[in-house]
Amino acid sequence: MSTNQNDELAQERLIDLAVEFYDQFAEGDIPHMDIPTRTKSNIVFDEDSNVWVYGDRKSTRSANSVRGARKLLKATYAIEFLVNQLEEGRSSTLRELYYLSESWDTEEAQFNDQDESNQLIEDLEIVSNVTREDFHMRPEESGATLMGPLELREQTRRGEREIHCQEDVGEGGYQIPNNPDTIEFLDHDIDFVLCVETGGMRDRLIENGFDEEYGCLVVHLKGQPARATRRITKRLHDELDLPVMVFTDGDPWSYRIYGSVAYGSIKSAHLSEYLATPEARFVGIQPQDIVDYDLPTDPLSDSDINALESELEDPRFMTDYWEEQIELQLDIEKKAEQQALASRGLDFVTDTYLPERLDTMGVI
């Protein structure tokens, strides 16, 4: 679907929501909006699709209370703003929407804090079945990058441009746009995608020429990956039929980074089928590596131990592999960073560690 078609669909869905409120008034009903209950207890792991999704429980935003009426009022103001933004071909950040509400002519429609405006945008995504990217809403921070043998065409305000993500970019790589669905993949020599947690490790791989030697597209996750990063990763897998590997530190929080790439996150459960790549595989630092390579480590904190124990109860990690690794980590009471591999030399990660792991997994 083209960008213009996406814009038109987003406008249409938003206007339909407003029309629904008017129809409820006309029929003598109290205006209301039903959305899935966004609590942990209403998030279920769909074993067919291997992603987190919302369950059947619904919450109703109804004007039959002052609090509910305020929420619907704010929703209608936000809908009007988003429709106008789309008509004008403009965009804004989530932070700007919060401040912009200060200028709305009804004080009751103004947001109390940014959490409230962020949550409303998520509500509108869920009930309209349109993503915030198609509302032209951007997060405040972005900047995740990719580097590798991929040629693409992107839509910009200055028209289309074609970019080769090795030859036409500097050492920093190609910056992933807020809405990766505006990118068209033209050609590639990629054998696999490697999603890397830290900037230091991403730079080591590029400096050592890992992307060129192994036909690897290196995607820098920048810690917990943004939606745009997860979306382009899914597109690379689905459309180009590429294996996706996730390379992180060896701690429970990094395992959750892998989990969000592969299975989705609780916060964005309504978008799991759009963002998650269940076929993604973990190639990060394993507790077994800490033992085998005698890596420099830090002791597990109490919060690390609690997180590991909760992961043993998490459907995403209920496999023989993860149970074995997590139990081992709880036993040795240690964690290690990606950069700990440098204790074996700066080239160890690209000459030995990753080639051996990826060969064992049948990727190279």
UniProtKB/TrEMBL annotation:
Boundaries of every Spo11/DNA topoisomerase VI subunit A N-terminal domain copy: 70-136
Major enzyme class: isomerase
Assigned EC number: 5.6.2.2
Alphabetically ordered keywords of this record: ATP-binding, DNA-binding, Isomerase, Magnesium, Metal-binding, Nucleotide-binding, Topoisomerase
Binding site for Mg(2+): 197, 249
GO biological process per UniProt: DNA replication; DNA topological change
UniProt domain Type II DNA topoisomerase VI subunit A all-beta: residue ranges: 140-189
Topoisomerase 6 subunit A/Spo11 TOPRIM domain span: 192-358
Names of required cofactors: Mg(2+)
GO cellular component, as recorded: chromosome
Assembly mode: Homodimer. Heterotetramer of two Top6A and two Top6B chains.
Function description: Relaxes both positive and negative superturns and exhibits a strong decatenase activity.
HAMAP family: Top6A (MF_00132)
Family the entry assigns: Belongs to the TOP6A family.
Protein name per the record: Type 2 DNA topoisomerase 6 subunit A
Native source organism of the sequence: Halogeometricum borinquense
Upper taxonomic lineage: Archaea, Methanobacteriati, Methanobacteriota, Stenosarchaea group, Halobacteria
Originating gene: top6A
